[in-house]
Design goal:
- This protein is mostly helical.
- The chain is built from five helices and no strands.
- Helix 1 packs across helix 2 and helix 1 packs antiparallel against helix 3.
- The longest helix is centred in the last third of the chain and has 36 residues.
Length: 130
Amino acid sequence: MLWRALADGLVVLHLAFVAFVIFGGFLAWRWPRALFAHLPALAWGVWVEVSGQICPLTDLEKHLRHLAGEAGYRGGFLHHYLLPILYPPGLTRSDQWVLAGALLAVNALAYGRLLARRAAQGSGGASGNR
């Protein structure tokens, strides 16, 4: 029971991490220091997508499920949990590249707005001091 609870908790943590990778750039609008955690997480997420590798958290979850006496599953975390929800059947490597590009585009928008706001605050603050 403990191993299953740990595996289930790891799934929740993994889903939270995936959400952070996708949307963490928007957190920097409110908490700019979030980018110090988000940028490495984003790099990791893009690397996993374009390399076709499986995140080590997936292997850990499978191991915990094995210890709990449960059957594991084939493929990666995204394939097992998110593919039926987010990705169409028949996901290809080129699709993964498109997803990686979309991930970068979403975060480029988030960071682009953050930089634009910073620039506006910097120029607005300078003119307000004159």
